[in-house]
Amino acid sequence: MNGLGVGGSQSSDLVNAANALLYAFMTLTCFAGPFLTNLIGFRWTLAVGALGYPLYAAGLYVNNRTDGTWLIYFGSVACGISAGFFYSVEGAIATGYPEHHKRGRYVATWFTFRNFGMIIGGAISLALNHKVNQKGKVGYELYLAFIGIQCLGFFLGLLLSNPDKVMRDDGSRIEAPRGIHWRTELIEMWKLLRSRSILLLTPLFWYFGWIQAYPGTYLATYFSVRSRALGGFVAAIVSTFSTWLGGSLVDLPWSKNRQTRALATYSLIVCLNTATWIWAVIIQNEYRFTLPVLDWAFQSEFGRGFGLYMLERASLGMIENFIYWAIGNLSDSPGDQVRYSSLLRGIETAAVAVGFGTQAVPTPLIATASINCGLWFIALPFSYFATLQVVGKFEEQDRMQDRMHEAVEITMEQKV
């Protein structure tokens, strides 16, 4: 829904305020995710985490029909409480279930399914609003489709197998112990919070969370209704492509050296994000004076602005894949990864809440784009050293494998 630009609403301030409230509650339940997962398991945590989404969509529906706001805020709180648990466990599933050499593509598969919802929603919205060539809000029928799809989430979540029931393709099992005392869990969370891995990744997660409010507000501010619908549809395809590009670059053996693949992917992400925010600042500086209403009927004006939105979505897709791939390779078990995911996604959702809260108060988009650019350059050195830490773990794993091979060869020679 956010792919439509502030949930398809006409009032960006209202939806940004609701999203700030939603993500504030998500931050709290994200940090509590490992405790609930420890009690009821991965499957039930995922299912429970999906319960709040239909209420959020219902709030947008009521506002679209009647201009009422109470259900938007109620739905935001309900969705925030449940979605925090959903966020904490889905990242652990995507990064902890597969083997090391498949994690980039599994993360890409996860984002593909998530983007598929945006593709469906964008296609429906485009079909319903393709004649509306002015600013405004999307048709209310769209929200009925969203509510119907989201009501399936709880039941689909119950189809997940818990880690102890999973066998990987290589025959290995997944270790995710249950029944850990809450004090022990709290101690482990505190240790992880102070670890080098978390401290290095925190600026990147904060940057990634903060910037999420900008693209939708940009789309709602400068584009007609049908162009917003087109943006939501095409952005999902672009995001899917970019996350698969990132996942394939780190996984597929185009270079035999995993370290080379990791650093090359990181370099591409640096170039893409740097170009995105420099271009965003340039365009926003122009738009603050011209205040355009961009529609695809006017190609000369539309292309530059729409291209920036696509570049933003491509940048988000690649960096999202990379940070979860990093989590997956810094920890080996879903038990640890649910802690990594909960802490880092909690930091991300806190940043999202602040970002949406900032946009809820009328803030010039040139200021937001400039802050986005600044946060990116602040996160750069930390993310570089986080990447080196992953590379260092690869080197350690390679040394262990070499020692194992040597031990096997020595044993075989002794038998001969």
Would you mind describing this structure in some detail?
The protein is mostly helical and 416 residues long. It has a single domain, classed as Up-down Bundle (Growth Hormone, Chain: A), CATH 1.20.1250. 79% of the residues lie in helices and 0% in strands. The chain has 14 helices and no strands. Helix 3 packs antiparallel against helix 4. The mean pLDDT is 84. It is found in: Membrane.
Q: Can you describe this structure in just a few lines?
A:
It is found in: Membrane. The protein is mostly helical and 416 residues long. The protein contains 14 helices and no strands.
Topology:
Layout: H1 12-49, H2 53-66, H3 70-96, H4 103-129, H5 141-150, H6 153-157, H7 182-193, H8 196-210, H9 213-222, H10 225-251, H11 258-290, H12 299-330, H13 334-360, H14 365-415
Helix pairs in contact: 1-3, 1-13, 2-3, 2-5, 3-4, 3-12, 3-13, 4-5, 4-10, 4-12, 8-12, 8-13, 8-14, 9-12, 10-11, 10-12, 11-12, 11-14
**How does CATH name the architecture?**
Up-down Bundle
Uncertain stretches of 5 or more adjacent residues: none
Q: What can be said about the biggest beta sheet?
A: none
What is the CATH H-level superfamily?
A: MFS general substrate transporter like domains
CATH topology: Growth Hormone, Chain: A
Globally, the shape reads globular
What CATH first level would be assigned?
A: Mainly Alpha
Please count the helical segments: 14
The whole-angstrom Rg is: 22 Å
Number of domains: 1
Could you say which structural class the secondary elements and strand pairing correspond to?
Answer: mainly alpha
State the share of residues found in helices, binned by percent.
over 70%
The CA-CA distance between the termini, in Å, is 66 Å
Q: What is the average of the pLDDT values?
A: 84
- DSSP strand content: under 5%
Give, in order, the helices and strands.
HHHHHHHHHHHHHH
> How many strands appear in the DSSP assignment?
0
Characterize the quaternary organization of these chains: single chain
Main location: membrane
InterPro entries: Ion_channel_UNC-93, MFS_trans_sf, UNC-93-like_regulator
Subcellular location: Membrane
Membrane topology: Multi-pass membrane protein
